[in-house]
Design a protein that fits this description.
Strands 12, 13, 34, 35, 36, 59, 60 and 61 form an 8-stranded antiparallel β-sheet that branches. A 6-stranded antiparallel β-sheet has the order 1-2-3-4-6-5, covered by helices on one side. Strands 14-15-16-17 form a 4-stranded antiparallel β-sheet, with no helix packed on it. Helix 1 crosses helix 3, helix 9 packs antiparallel against helix 12 and helix 12 packs antiparallel against helix 13. The longest helix is centred in the first third of the chain and has 20 residues. It is about 15% helix and about 35% strand. The chain has 15 helices and 61 strands. The chain has about 1000 residues and is α+β, with helices and mostly antiparallel strands.
Length: about 1000
């Protein structure tokens, strides 16, 4: 080694080579340094320098993070090489709080951003609290317009948070060149408002909303950053970890703070609305709303000077912008908009016109152009609308326009429109009791009338042809089809158990279906019935199908299209049924869709028809890449399908439940649909020794898409679950012993993972890919296929030596696999009416299996218990009933001590968690079923990311259970095409 003191002299090119080799050594850390050097740098001086630096690093710690870089390389490193497990790529920016780096996460193989405190801080320091509060506040709200937080950590005394790396530039940088076009302003403002709405609904006030905390991606997506000054708006919550700036002192970026924030007064959501108004003003004008020569003079302007008028800065601008900006920038909070939802709805109204940012003018198209030219703004006709684009309606190119019809802050969904286009019906939770009630309103009017008041969820309304009544699904008294006058009054039960009722075009027939649709569309799980609209006995039609559901009437004939599986076939398709001659014809569409890029959305297992228009177009909701939109495809009366599917809407959320009519007044096709936001998360419910909930549900895993299928070890220390990644679902591990849980590690498999489960001892994993079932040690290894033509796994025994799978193809039997044996049906019964089975779970000692079972033709599902016998034969008398009622009971799971079984049931009108005690030896139930956790809000329900109920993943550990809950919000929108004039 070179003993010469100081830094050896090398050329700049040599130093670059030396640094690269040192970085490579730092990454690989070979045990034999000499052999490693011989292989890579045989040259004497270079080799000695690399060896000297490597040995210095080995004895000095991470030298690229400290003074060793200056001491041994002679220059200061521009950034650290590693922070925690993350490999630093480059510095993205810095500020008073610290530095932000782009980095690579080798565990999850993705690029991330890391925010690091400027220097080491004490655990109670202001900056450290603020950094961690930033992470907590941002991660508390899951929304596509809010940056995702992945991890929080400390490395060598440096605190950091890890978040998604947003490729783009700050809004402030975009505005440095001047004002933005009105269309672009609307696009960004709506997304910012959406993000603030999500944060405010979660009780988070941002308090530092400014253009540099708003990133714009290359694709025009908004990402809200930096919640370091955020404040939780829950007066009853304790926040002892809040940094001092959040406890009453002045905080925020000077030019964008509200007057009350500038004076150090309490701040609520209206402070964020003021900041939003400042940003909106700046986007439209290219100038700050409040200016000054110093921070003090700017604050003085904010407190004392009136907000400037937009018309003084950019005269030819839609006056609605002026109204919104002034409503945001009023000095007194009580005089501003009360919530960001109201602001967003005002902005959304501007998108409804065919020229966003311009005031729509009534009258003919020719008069509109003449007036526009007379006002000197004809050049603005080049602007297109947000969420507005021309699509192919059949073979005729027409322009479609989008308009928001409801402005609920919660959930409005399942819209339908009367045949004459004059009335709208939908369900909404706006009444505030958590349930979905039925509302109707006249077209073009904002006021709606509430028709139902029984606090049971409603769905799928449909008008009678004369629009004097609405038929709908209610969960009242076990669920069924009801009818009620559009003027209100007493509802009347039409069809117990009925779903998705609709009237034929001539008004003579009502079609509906009964049952449930699971992942395999089992035999007898769903049947379609028709009955005279005037009343009478319903009859099953069509017959000869293992399962049939979702009838949708043609607009021109006595026919309906439906989802069905023919007897003896494993293939599901769309079929056309004719009332006149009682014939059915296949369309072959689902097979065609499978070969395209059109897929069922995550909350569905099959593509389902939703509306059949006068031009033979059938509308449905489908997923392509990362969006879920409405699509249309032509279906003739004979089942023929000329042409390919075409996209009907183009939003970025979830668009579902379309209904349509032809408006004869202007010859337009008017479609209404629900634009939804849906997110799933895994929640934890603590349990006491009696099996009851000992506290409220707690959010455990969030921040990923398609989260579902949690499976927890019996001791509660480990958990697996699935989440979306390109190409399918990925399997993820999390250590629940860490508080908060660490970022889930991903198990990379060559095949997409469907519904993973873990053994009770945490040693073994099972999952399905396609129709094959696999098993693998949880610590790694080669997956082993253990069944073919089977569905997803439902459970593993405690030691991982036995597994249960759903039946595949046309089978309705659970499949049992035992290590060293071939897979076989779990049991066969001497009963002449065998039970169809799913959701099987082993008892802790593997002597029993609990499952959800039903008989052909029954809408109810029971929790049953059978012994595991060597030959699979179980006499009828040995099938034990945990439930015996008219409700849907599903997803049973044994407690680790075998003394009770938990399950999901709709016995009180909504899916909730129930339990019943059993004898762990005989498996006989004892005592009545009792509730464990209720979920009666439509906006927060027990539901996984898919229609298959197994994605709920109800799983029980020693003192808690986990399951998947889905949060849903949304509003009703209109899509209307106008014929050429």
């Amino acid at each position: 080694m070179d003993e010469t003191p100081g830094v050896p002299e090398h050329s700049a090119e040599e130093w670059e080579g030396i640094k690269e080799l040192v970085y490579q050594w730092e990454t690989e850390r070979p045990q034999d340094l000499d052999a490693w050097l011989t292989e890579r740098c045989p040259d004497g001086p270079i080799r000695r320098e690399v060896e000297r630096l490597a040995r210095a690093a080995a004895t000095s710690g991470d030298f690229l993070l400290g003074r060793a870089a200056e001491e041994h390389l002679g220059i200061a490193a521009s950034h650290p090489v590693h922070i925690g497990r993350y490999r630093v790529i480059e510095e993205l920016g810095s500020g008073g709080l610290g530095v932000v780096y782009a980095a690579y996460d080798p565990a999850l193989e993705r690029k991330v951003a890391i925010k690091v405190l400027a220097d080491k801080a004490s655990p109670q320091s202001e900056r450290r609290k603020r950094l961690r509060w930033d992470a907590k506040a941002a991660s508390a709200t899951q929304h596509p317009n809010i940056v995702v937080i992945y991890d929080v950590g400390n490395d060598a005394g440096l605190d950091y948070i890890v978040m998604e790396c947003v490729e783009g530039q700050p809004l402030g940088q975009l505005m440095s060149a001047g004002r933005l076009p009105p269309r672009t302003v609307l696009k960004y403002a709506l997304q910012i408002a959406d993000a603030l709405d999500a944060a405010h609904r979660g009780g988070i006030i941002h308090r530092d909303l400014n253009p540099n905390n708003i990133m714009i991606t290359k694709d025009g997506w908004v990402k809200l950053l930096d919640f370091g000054l955020a404040k939780h708006d829950d007066p009853g919550a304790e926040h002892t970890s809040l940094p001092a700036t959040i406890e009453g002192h002045f905080a925020g970026t000077v030019a964008y703070v509200s007057p009350e924030q500038a004076e150090g007064k309490p701040v609520d959501v209206r402070g964020d609305i003021f900041s939003f108004g400042c940003i909106l003003f700046e986007m439209l004008t290219g100038k700050q709303a409040f200016q000054g020569q110093s921070a003090v003079s700017i604050l003085g302007s904010i407190i004392h000077q009136p907000a400037p008028a937009l018309r003084d800065e950019v005269p030819p601008l839609d006056e609605r912008f002026e109204t919104i900006v002034q409503g945001c920038l009023r000095k007194e909070p009580d005089q501003r908009f009360s919530n960001i939802v109201e602001v967003r709805s005002r902005l959304a109204e501007m998108v409804q016109a065919n020229e966003p940012g311009q005031r729509p003018v009534r009258g003919t198209r020719r008069r509109w152009i003449r007036r526009a030219m007379g006002a000197g703004i004809a050049a603005l006709l080049v602007f297109g609308a947000i969420r507005v684009a021309p699509w192919q309606l059949g073979e005729n190119a027409e322009r479609a326009y989008m308009a928001r019809l409801t402005v609920d802050s919660g959930l409005a969904s399942f819209p339908t429109i009367s045949r004459d286009g004059k009335m709208l019906a939908y369900v909404s939770d706006r009444a505030g009791d958590g349930s979905l009630d039925l509302w109707v309103q006249h077209w073009g009017q904002a006021d709606a009338t509430r028709l139902t008041f029984d606090h049971k969820d409603k769905s799928s309304p449909a008008f009678t042809p004369a629009a004097d009544n609405v038929v709908y699904r209610s969960e009242q008294d076990g669920g069924g089809l009801y009818t009620i006058s559009t003027f209100g009054g007493q509802a009347r039960l039409l069809a117990p158990g009925g779903r998705d009722g609709g009237f034929s075009w001539d008004g003579n027939w009502l079609a509906y279906w009964m049952g449930t649709v699971g992942g395999a569309f089992h035999r007898g799980c769903a049947k379609i019935y028709i009955m005279p609209a005037s009343g009478g006995q319903p009859e099953e039609f069509p017959t000869g199908f293992e399962a049939a559901a979702y009838p949708v009437w043609s607009s021109t004939a006595k026919q309906f299209i439906f989802l069905g599986r023919k007897a003896g076939s494993a293939d599901v398709d769309w079929w056309v049924a004719s009332i006149a001659d009682h014939t059915v014809r296949p369309t072959g569409l689902l097979q065609k869709f499978r070969k395209s890029s059109i897929f069922p959305q995550p909350r569905s297992y099959f593509l389902m028809p939703a509306a059949w228009l006068t031009d033979s177009t059938v509308l449905f909701s489908a997923k392509t890449f990362d969006t879920i939109n409405l699509w249309g495809v032509r279906v003739n009366a004979d089942g023929g399908t000329p042409g390919d599917a075409h996209q009907w809407t183009s939003g970025t959320g979830i668009e579902d439940y379309p209904a349509a009519t032809l408006t004869t007044a202007d010859g337009s096709t008017r479609t209404v649909f629900a634009a939804l936001t849906v997110s799933t998360a895994i929640w934890r419910i603590p349990l006491n020794s009696g099996g009851e909930a000992s506290g409220p549900a707690q959010r455990l895993i969030q921040g990923l898409t398609g989260i579902g299928s949690p499976s927890v070890s019996a001791d509660g220390g480990k958990m697996t679950f699935s989440a979306n990644q390109p190409g399918g679902q990925s399997l993820r591990f999390v250590d629940l012993g860490l508080q908060p849980p660490a970022v889930p590690a991903v198990v990379h498999l060559s095949l997409a993972v469907d519904h993973p489960v873990m053994s009770g001892d945490g040693s073994t994993l099972a999952w399905a890919t396609g129709r094959d079932g696999y098993i693998m040690p949880s610590h790694g290894g080669t997956p082993k296929k253990i069944c073919s033509a089977c569905g997803p796994p439902t459970h593993l025994s405690f030691d991982g030596n036995a597994a249960l799978f759903e039946g595949g193809g046309t089978s309705e039997d659970l499949i049992l696999w035992v290590r060293g044996q071939k897979s076989r049906p779990l049991f066969s019964s001497t009963d002449n009416r065998p039970w169809m089975q799913n959701s099987g779970r082993f008892s802790p000692d593997r002597r029993w299996v609990a499952f959800s079972g039903w008989h052909d033709g029954s809408d109810a599902r029971q929790i049953l218990i059978v012994p595991v016998t060597p030959d699979g034969v179980v006499p009828t008398g040995q099938i034990l009933e945990l439930t015996n009622d008219e409700f849907v009971n599903k997803e049973p799971f044994w407690s680790p001590d075998g003394k009770r079984i938990y399950f999901v049931s709709d016995r009180d009108g909504s899916d909730c968690v129930w339990a019943r005690n059993i004898d762990p030896v005989s498996a006989h139930p004892s005592g009545p079923a009792f509730p464990v956790a209720h979920f009666h809000s439509a906006a927060m329900a027990i539901h996984g990311p898919g229609r298959y109920s197994g994605t709920i993943g109800l799983s029980v550990a020693r003192d808690f259970l986990v399951l998947t809950l889905t949060e849903t919000g949304g509003n009703v929108w209109e899509r209307s095409n106008r014929t050429r004039l």
